Amino acid sequence: MTVPTLEIDIDPVWGEDVDWDALSTRTAGAAAAEAPELARANMLISVVFSDDDDVHALNREWRDKDKPTNVLSFPMLSREEVEALSDQPALPVMLGDIVLAKGVCAREAEEKSVALANHATHLLVHGLLHLAGYDHETGDADAEIMEALEVRILARLGIADPYGDRHQPV
């Protein structure tokens, strides 16, 4: 299967208990299997496993929210531009950046009683779908589509539905 090319940067605060590179690659593969617009080898995605301070600064600068958050996505293309990309080999096309905050992710994982790796995987899936042009903030129908895709992608990875049983497959 064709998957996007990932450039991964891991801050040491994430530790070495999990192979974050391998987790990211598996996650991108599962996402590409469910969201074919991501199944392009010439697609380049930057994934940064960062700390709360860096994500806080990015969130303040780019979203006018003066607090850290779990994940930020910075798409470089619109949904229409992503769908129009060719499968033909070409120069890499930068789809965008995903940045995860270790402290926020760890606290949320603990609150949800899930492994940090599973929660980070969910947030990475969420970020990948945002880069592909999905947006849960544009309406309830769009949120349902995006969340259902997240659930299917996570199921491919053996991770339980993070939303509980409120979603039916679409």
TrEMBL record:
Designated gene of the protein: ybeY
UniProt protein name: Endoribonuclease YbeY
Gene3D superfamilies assigned to the protein according to its UniProt record, in alphabetical order: Metalloproteases ('zincins'), catalytic domain
UniProt family annotation: Belongs to the endoribonuclease YbeY family.
Named cofactor requirement(s): Zn(2+)
Record has Zinc as a keyword: yes
EC number(s) stated in the UniProt entry for this protein: 3.1.-.-
Residue numbers binding Zn(2+): 126, 130, 136
Swiss-Prot/TrEMBL GO biological process terms: rRNA processing
Protein function: Single strand-specific metallo-endoribonuclease involved in late-stage 70S ribosome quality control and in maturation of the 3' terminus of the 16S rRNA.
GO terms under cellular component: cytoplasm
Cofactor annotation remark: Binds 1 zinc ion.
Coiled-coil positions: none
Swiss-Prot/TrEMBL keywords: Cytoplasm, Endonuclease, Hydrolase, Metal-binding, Nuclease, Ribosome biogenesis, rRNA processing, Zinc
Pfam family, one: YbeY
Subcellular localization, as worded in the UniProt entry: Cytoplasm
Taxonomy, superkingdom: Bacteria
Molecular function (Gene Ontology), one example: RNA endonuclease activity
Enzyme's top EC category: hydrolase
